[in-house]
Design goal:
Length: 297
């Protein structure tokens, strides 16, 4: 027996390890020992898992789970953190619960603290429909212009947020554009005529003696006003501004008059606290005010 053979096993002269006896086109496969560091890592991992199973929440048992010796509950920890955040903003949030919103909006120091939180509140609850900056979208009003369906003061906005529009709240604001064409209230010719009249309103080019003007006077003035400026309290939008809720080209205006519209905003009472609703109302009112200041000559 040579020095390269021990107990009948072939020894690789370069590494000193035994071979498996397999030969791959002249390359012998080594029987390399399993690294001890890996064995120790596996052992430590197993030991840690055993300790974690005992100390931490780990095992599901039906609809519940074991709490572990430490009794940790991530839900409880998260709620405690949320409660701590709530306590941290009580000092500036409390005045919004039942305060004079105009007076609160006129307090620069309070607004500096409140508006970042209001912006996050708007992003979480309102931006999906009204857009990140409140500029609206198809079917959702622009909150930055001067035209409001029920009024743009903070108190009025807060009431709209509280009860919603065409919502399930008992005091909801109600607004609906009738389907004049679909329901047969106007003929096809009358719908087309009043469509042309409405499209001419923003540029003051509307012919007051036209057939469309007569249809408008008989069917639309009660909600939208004689000049199409809209009606506060009825939810009827202005027809003379540059921005339209459902689109201002002829096809979309025709579709609105023919098929009607009925937008919906949920009631936020019960979803948000009174203070949060008032905070949002001040924020939304400032969106419009800031935009009007920016557009002023």
């Amino acid at each position: 027996m040579t020095a390269d053979q021990r107990h009948g096993a072939e020894i690789d002269p370069a590494t000193g390890y035994e071979t498996t006896g397999h030969d791959w086109n002249g390359i012998r496969e080594l029987n390399t020992p399993f690294p001890r560091i890996v064995i120790w890592a596996l052992a430590l991992t197993f030991l840690y898992s055993m300790i974690a199973w005992i100390l931490l929440p780990a095992w599901p048992i039906g609809r519940d789970f074991t709490r572990g010796v430490l009794g940790l509950d991530q839900r409880q920890i998260a709620m405690q953190g949320y409660a701590a955040l709530e306590r941290g903003r009580d000092d500036w949030m409390a005045p919004f619960a039942a305060g004079n919103l105009d007076a609160l909006a006129a307090d620069p120091a309070l607004m500096a603290r409140a508006m970042p939180a209001a912006q996050r509140l708007f992003a979480d609850n309102c931006a999906a429909c009204h857009g990140t900056h409140g500029t609206g979208g198809p079917g959702f009003p622009d909150l930055t212009d001067a035209n409001w369906l029920w009024g743009g003061s903070p108190d009025t906005i807060a009431e709209t947020l509280r009860v919603g529009i065409n919502s399930g709240h008992p005091d909801t604001r109600v607004s609906q554009m009738p389907a004049f064409g679909r329901d047969g209230m106007l003929s096809r010719e009358a719908v087309q005529a009043v469509t042309d009249y409405v499209l001419a309103l923003p540029g003051s080019a509307a012919d007051a003696q036209s057939a469309g003007a007569q249809v408008f006077a008989e069917n639309c003035v009660a909600c939208h006003g004689e000049n199409g400026n809209g009606g506060l309290g009825t939810g009827a939008p202005s027809l003379v501004g540059a921005r339209w809720i459902y689109g201002g080209d002829r096809a979309k205006v025709l579709a609105t008059i023919h098929g009607g519209r009925q937008g919906v905003m949920p009631s936020w009472a019960g979803r948000l606290s009174a203070a949060e609703i008032n905070l949002l109302a001040v924020y939304v009112a400032r969106l419009g005010a800031n935009n009007q200041h920016a557009e002023a000559p």
